[in-house]
Amino acid sequence: MAWQQVIESLRTNHQRFEHQLENILRAEEQRKLQIHCRKGCGNCCRLAVNCSFPEAALIAQQLSTQQQQTLKTRTPVLQNMSKTAENLKQFLRLFRQQRHGCPLLIPENQCCSIYSLRPFSCRSLLSTRPSSWCGVDFADLHPLEKQAFLSSLNPEIVAFPTHYLAQPQELGAGLEASTMVEMHDHYDISLGGNLIYLIWLELEYQLVELLEKNREKAKKLLLHEERNHPFLLQLKIS
Ligand code: SF4
Asked: Residue 108 C-alpha to ligand 1 middle, in angstroms?
């Protein structure tokens, strides 16, 4: 089954990421660069997460009934936000302001409930500043404070203007793109977007099954969803 090959390739990419990340972190440790990420932080989980559809579908298939319910109740909020926003920047700001964050974060201990399956975009956020900076909305900062923060960053190390280490982000983006290419090679469809929304698509429409059994119907459905929620989906059909 084509989907099995897509998922095998994704799992291989997960392993590749973890292996290469170890090397990156070892090198940074030698340079005495401190990474502030700790178990139970969860501050970056308040940001909107984007990923490829195979990553989201793999997570969707592992969720408990309660997790599915939580996610389904959050989806209309997300859809409203996407309809209200005038552009992607405004949508991301609205998402951050609503403070709910990711429904896969366990509220009691601020840990990720699907840690071993988390998307590349989550894996690749490694903070070079104390975690309180991960929760800051820069639009709320005084211009001088913002300037001081930006000038404290080393653009050769971080993904400027963020304080996150650049190398893992480049690595994660490359592996996410390769996952989408793998999907495209099998289905002539490349699909990425908001993590919560992609999981919902799988739960609501059994999209993986639809891709396997009725690709034309899947294409129609996705074109409709993309038209309605352009900030939630990135779709390429050939
Ligand atoms: S998937 Fe996990 S790591 Fe990623 S934002 Fe959600 S809770 Fe955080």
From this structure: 14
Please say whether the beta carbons of 197 and 232 come within 8 A.
yes
Contacts of 99 (CB under 8 A, 6+ apart): 46
Determine the atom of ligand 1 nearest the C-alpha atom of 118: 1
Nearest CA to ligand 1 atom 1: 118
Domain housing 51: 2-237
Cα 106 to ligand 1 centre (Å): 9
| Residue located nearest, by CA, to atom 5 of ligand 1 | 45
Q: Give residue-wise pLDDT tens across range 163-193.
A: 999 999 999 999 999 999 999 999 999 999 9
User: Among 146, 132, 43, 47, which Cα is nearest to 94's?
Assistant: 47
Domain count, the chain: 1
Which amino acid residue places its CA nearest to atom 4 of ligand 1? 122
Q: What pLDDT does 137 receive?
A: 82
Query: pLDDT tens digits for 20-79?
Result: 999 999 999 999 999 999 999 999 998 899 999 999 999 999 999 999 999 999 999 999
Q: How many residues appear in the chain?
A: 238
